[in-house]
Structure formats: structure tokens, C-alpha cells
Amino acid sequence: MIYHLSLVKLYFCFLLSTTYAAAYSTYSPPSLDSARVGQLGIVGRFAGLSPYTNSLQTATPSSGLGVFQQDDATSVFLNHLGGSGKLHASCIMDQQLYLAGDFSTLTTHNDNNTSAVTVNNIARWDMTTNTLSTLDQGIDGPVYALYCDSTNHTLYVGGEFHQPIGSNSTSFAGSVAQWYNNQWLPLPWQGFNGPVHVITHNPKQNTVLFGGRFDATGDGVYFNMNSSQPVNLDQPTVISSGNGKLAGNNSQPDSVVCPNSTPQNLGQPWLLQEDVPGYWQATFPYAIQPSSFRISNTQLPNQATRSFSILALGSNELFQLTYVDPATQTRSTCSDMCFLANTPNVTFQDFTVNNAINTTGVRIEIHSWYGSGGGLGNVQIYQADNTLNPHLDTTNNNCSGSGTASTSVVGQWKETFAYGSYENFLTSSIPALLVGNIQAAQAFYSVGAATFASASSPQWTRYYGIFDNDDTAVVNAGLFWHNATSNQQVTILGGRFTMQNGAISNIALYHDNTWSGFQLDTGGADSQSMVNTLLNVQGILYIGGQFSGQVQQQAVKSMAIYSLTDRVALPVSGITDDSGAPGQINVIQPSSDGSKIYVGGNFAKAGSLDCPSVCQWDVSVRQWNPVGQGLGGTVQGLSVNGNRLTVIGSLTNQQQPIKLAQIDQSSTSTWSSSPASSSSSDLQKLTLTAVVDAPDNGVIVAGQTSEQPPQVVIGTLDSQQKFTELPSPQASSSFLLPGSTIQQLLFVPTSGNAANQPRYPPNTNSVLMAVGHMQLSMAGNATVALYDGLSWSPYILASQFDGQPGQANAVFHELDCCKANSIRHYLPVPAVILISIAISLGLLFLLVGMGLGWMFMKRRRQGLDYPEPMPAWKPSSPAEGMSANQDAGWRPASSIAAILDAAQLATLGGAAGLAIASSSQHEQPKNKTESDVHGLGVGNEGLTSPTATSFDQLKAMALLQPDYNGPATEDRPQLYAAKYPFDAKEFGELGFDADESIVVTDTSDNVWWMGYKDDGTGKPISGLFPSNYVSRPSA
User: SH3 domain location, by residue (predicted)?
Assistant: First the structure.
């Protein structure tokens, strides 16, 4: 529709309608910490969103048409005119603003005085004197287009009307008129047979052009055939093909369209591959309605098209065509099999469309051919409508005598696709005069839900057209879930809506630019089904609301559990009222460790369990449990702070009506409902709308009084059930006005230094975020506002389709934040400096002390280690094979001290070892020979005995005293058996296997004993071993 060109898109956050001049002030809200918050999402009732950036932003006083004039560079618009109806067009001539549309009266606003004037669809506003005047009696129908000819001082009017009121009916044929010299005059051709939507000047011919849906003039002189407008097949139209020639001059499908080819000059025809069907395709940047096709064959004797059909892309419908057979000169009709002649005297054939189809592309499918394959020589497409398509990159079509008209634009314009009408428009930002059927203007268009990736600098993601043509769709809840498998962020929305023609209802998941989901009802979406709340705990999605049906063959009633990771529904007993009908769940909250899930709403049972208003789901055993006794009614909000639960709503406790109740599950099973008040507000007399955990085991609640308009109350209820309202702001601060409604409260972390900035709670880097619809004393309405302990400031503005302020139901965040237990408290700067100094000194002293201690231990370990001398050897029995000169009573040295000396001797080695050995030898008895030292041979398996003594002799000696239970000595050896294998790893140790015989000769140490074993050749070998590895053998 061409008349949409008269509407300009304002990159202005919100319409300003103040009637006073004020100094411009740029506003920067507290910057949220994106690293701790992640993405933010907002759901509710709105059609557009804006971040708050200007301290003068506010809402329009009422919806409807209006005239707002920018007074100066402060971006303040003054409201001059208003009224009901629609304003379609305007233009300025001689300081006169002409307004036209579909309205009967306009109301002026001058010096706080208002007056209504009857104008009948057209009026004039004097921009110098700010006065309104009529154009005679007006027009008898809606006006869609105006053109001010300043040269001739003539106003041209177009629309869907018959004539000016009170004029001669025979002079006007309808749709157009002109205002000249303060009177209405007809056009020379009297009018058109259809509505006019645009009027513009043609500077090349110095003429005035009229555009609309008509094909004849009112005097009957001119009549336009419905197939005379050629469709531009040059850029930006995309020409492609299937199964075309792979290379060569005949492989380009765009060679058969102008300017490369005409029916009179074919140029290079486009050919298919030999003996295969294929297609030629044109895709347009906008929708068209083809009325006829002019097709030329290749004019090649060995390769040309014989039969074809034309398909409308998108709808996949075949065009029904009528053509004249060049051989028989008879009119024929075809759709799936149309025939094309290939004779030199037939340069082209015209195929007229019988069934009008709107399409964004056509495909000519070739089914059979003459010779070796098919092809085309030239293609032209015509449409019935004479339209102007707003595309800046569209080139002029000079391929026919009636060329495609084009016009140029002046200024900074860009193409914008309008969702809802699904058309392109040219838009610009013009800070001047704004007129039209103004209801609201926002920076971003989004219906019901939006997310932005950075909380500090919002970059919005808008969900265009997600609902099935339903302006009443509601989104109540949302959340983010990170899919670790695909490493993707998933946005989940819940409410009452349908998507993809009903394939998705009430629950939708958005990822990879694609929507998915499921139905909560077996037979399709129930208009009464509603999802009110969502919760994700470790990949398990909890869905609460009021619905009944099945999810993947799992019966659900008002409560559903869905595994996001496994994509399966989990069984859960339904939430119902006393009659078994679906109950209503309004809120779902987890316990601090996620092991329990609390639901609140208006219900009586969970499965067969009596569990009114509040119920607990145990995740580990998958069963419902009641919470306390005596509570009833409807729970609107629920807070879980450790073992303490706080609920708000229209409740009863022991049959007594209340608005708030608390219970500490660790100490009682009874709900408490009498908080003390230190302010003028009694919580039990308020309508409470929001509750959130607060520091120090308290909660923050928000509500409204019963007076009209309702006054908002927000304050803290501490652990002693004492309610205190938030501090009253100073006179220079912004505060909440009556009529505000808070739906959600949460703590959001801010970035930057909080030392010199007010924050709430004090000495933190957090502020309190309120979600809903707030009226602020110094900023007007806001959908999301922030409280820093001193003042309220707007954060996000929203509006609905009807121009009314939008309302947010919830804000959700990507990361685990925004709770009382996640608030970071900070000390004052002087305290931080003193603590830092103390920590630094403490670390310094600690390091010095550790260094001194290490040096002390090192010196202690490095003390002189003198080897213990070998004890004197005394024989106990004669040895076999010894001479008289030798010690006939030799026995191997077996004291632990001797072994340790031998180990030290082997370890030191070199000169030190020789010195120790020499010292030991000097202390030995004189009768000890060099061969005696052989008894202390150093090796990996203990110490070896002399060859003259066998292990059997030692064993026999131990067996001579079987009843002796005292300590083992050299004189009284004892026989033991190994319980476990022992692996000798150090010098002097004796390794052995399990059940091996051991002759123990020294048990003076509690841990290490000394003894002998057979080395495998019958000779004894000695060493140390753990005492618990051996035991006395059984008799």
C-alpha cells in the first residue's frame, strides 16, 4: 500500500508530550554487571520496547491521532492537536499544515485550553498562529493522500471518497479533488474508478502522478488493460536454473531476460543439459501477481522446449494459462502441460494467467523438448497492478516501450521490512514535525517477549511474528538454558499462545534461530490453557500453570516436568482442585540445594494427597509432601530462604483471611500470619503482588493499598516479622506514584565502583529491580525500574499495540544471580586499606618465620653422624671347619647397631667409608681376622653369613628351645614363619616370601626385628624386617 510511505519511523525512544520547555539531560541508568547476569529476557504484555536514555521521556497523554511539534533541540514535542480516528497524510504549503485521514473532529490544545472543531476528514493548521481551520465542509470519505503544489498554490487530495461535501455531484467522479483559492475544484478527468493512495510530482514532465487501485478515469476516456505492467527481471530479481548447461555461452539463465535478450533480438539462448528435464526460475524481492507470460523458444533446430508448466514459488501452485495455438489459431488452456512452438515465424507466445496468485517467484519447468534438450530464448513477465516498490537498490527496467517508473529519494533513507503487513517501506529519522494516528513509538518492535545479550549495553533480540495472528497472546514466564551438548543458549517461553499453525502451544523453545516445543493438550491448544511459571534445575524443566493434557504420552494436570537434556517428559502427579479439575500454579521456587521444589497457587490436591495452596516436590524420591497446616486460598508469590517460606496472595490461615504467611519448617508445622509493623502500612490490609528474599533472612514485599488510585507500598520484613517500608526519598529524588504495580522484585549486580554510588542494600554493588508497570514522579511510566536506596530510576519502557503503556510480567536472566545470597557486600575504603596493610604485615612475618624455621630444621638435620663401632664378637659354639687358630665359636654379628653401621659404611663410600672401616677395625678384638669382615658383606639382600655356617644349623639351634617365650637374642634364637611376603628395598633389609622360615635373633625394637633366612644355597643371610610380617609357627 503506497500510502504507508507517508509514515516515518522515529528512532526515538518514546513520544514526548510535555507542554513545557525543559533543559535536555541525557540519562545513564546504573550499568548492570554482564559477567554476573549474562543475558536478560523480558516477557509480558507489550508490542515495543525502549531503553530509557532521556530524562524528559514520558508517555503521550492519550491514544489516537495527534500533532506534535519539536520545539527545540531538547527533543521535547509539544502537543497541539488530538482526536479520535486515523490520520493518513499531511503536507506543508505556505506555512500551512494540511492534515487528512479518517476523522470527523479535531481538538486543539492552546494555553491549556481545549476546543473541538468539526473538520470531516481534512483540516488546515496554521503553524505561525497555531490555529485550526476547516476546508469548507470537508470531504465525504477517508482521505489517503495529499500533495502540496507550492508553485501553483494548489492542494491535490486523493482517497476513497465521492466528492467534497456540498459540491456539484456531476463534476466529481470520485477519489480525487483539488483545493485552490479557498474552494474545491474537480480534476479535468473528474476522478477515478478506485481509491487513490499516493500523489506525487514528476519533475521531468512537470506533471502530477496519482497512484492507487484504479484502471479508468471518471470521464471514461482512459482505460488501462490489466496486464500492461512489465515485471523487472534485472537486479534485485535473482535468476537461477536447474540442470542447465554447466559451461559455455548457453549456461547463464539471465541471458534470456532484458537487457541481455528481447523477443526481437534473442542473443544467447539458455539451454538445458541434453536429455534431462530442468527449470528456469526468477525470485523477486517483493510479492507480485503475474497476469501474463511472454516466452520465446530457442529458435534452434536441434534443441528447444516442447512442453512446460509454470509454478508459483511459496504456495507451489501451478498457474492456469490461456494461449493461442500458433498452428490452429485456437485458444487453449493448460496448467501442467503447456506447449511452445519452435518455428522461425513465431518469435514469442503470450500466456495469460487465469488464476491470480500472489508469489515471490516463478519457476518454468521444462518437461519435454525438440531435439537433444530444452531451453529458452527470452522470458518476460507482466502484472496487472501499477505499483511502486520501495527498494533503494532496484534498477530501472528499460526493456519495453512502457518502462518501469522510478523515483529518487532525498536524505538518509533505508529499507525497513514491516512485520504484520509483511512489506518493505522506506524509513528515515526526521527530527521535525510528527503527525499521524500516533499511539506509541518505541526503539524496538517485539511482541510479548524480548532478550538482550548484554545487560550493560542492551542489544535486543526481538521475536517477530512468533504468535499465530493473535494480538491477545500472553507470555508469562521465560528462562535461559545452556545446552552443554551443542554449546547453545536456549530461550524458553511459557504462557498462552500458539505458534506454527498450532503445532506449538503454551511452551516454546528458541535456539539456532528456530522455534520448537510441544502441545500441552492432546487435541491441540486449548484456549484456556495457561503456563504461569517456569523453573530449570540442572536441566530439568518444571512447568506450572493451569492446563490438562499429555506431553509425550505423560498425563499432565497443571504441572509438567520435562528433561531438557534427554528431551523426554517425566511422570508427575497432577495438581487439582477438590473436584479433580486442573488447579492453578502461579509460582515455582526451589530450595537452596535444589533437592526440593515448592509450588504455590490455587489448588487442593497433589495427586491423591491433600496439599492445599503450597506443596513440596521431593526430587530424590519423586513424591509430593504437604507444607504446614491450615493454609488455604491463592498463592501469588513465594519466597524460599533456607527453611523459612514466605507466601503472599489472597490466603486464609486457620479459616482467617490473610495476605501474607510464613513458616519455618525446621521448628514448626504451623503458618504464622501476624507481622508487626513499624510503619503506617498494615501488610494484612494490602494487596501484595511481589516477594523476594532479602539479606539477613528477611524478605522484601510489594503491594498496593485499597484506595483509588492504589498507592504502592514496598518494604522489608525481617526475621523477627517486623515490617519496615523502604526509606522515603528526598524531594529531589524520583519515587513511585499511585497506580504503580510491581509484579517481580530481584537484586541485580552493577558494574563499577560502588564506593561513590548509592546502592541497595548499602555497601554492596547491587540495586533492586522492580518489574511491572511503574509510575515515577520524575520520569513518567516505566516497565522496569531500579532502586538504589535513595531514588527510583526507569530502565526499560514499553507500549502495547493500542498505545497504552506496556507491562512486564517477569524478567529472567542467564546466570545464577539476582538473589539475596548472591549479593556481594563491601567494606568502606579506609577499612579495606587497613585490612590490606594488616594482611601484608602478617604475610611478611609468616614468610620470615617460615624461613627461620626451615634454617633451624636444616641445621638440626645436618648434625655430625658418628658411626657406631662394631661390638666385640664372642663365640657361642664351635664352628664347623675352623682351625684351632681361628675362633672356634664364631657366630654372625646380628645386632641392629652393627647392621646400621654396615649400612652407613656402604652409603658413604670412598674415603669416608674407608675411614669408618678403619675406625671399626681398630676397635675390633685382635683375634678378629680380615675374613671376619666377610660376615658383613654389603648387598641388596641384607648381610651374608660365612660359608662355614649353614642355615640348618641356625634353625636347629632355634628349635632346641621350643618352649622359650622371652625375647629373641643371639644366645636364644627363635624360629618364625613369614605371614606375608616382604620386598627388601633399602640396604640391610631382609626380603622373604610368605611361609618362609625365619630365625629371629633380635626383637629389642618394636617395629624392626633382625633375623636369618636361607639364601637358597643353604647358607644363612641376615637383615632387618617388619615384626608384624612374621609369626611363631604352629606346633
Answer: 971-1035
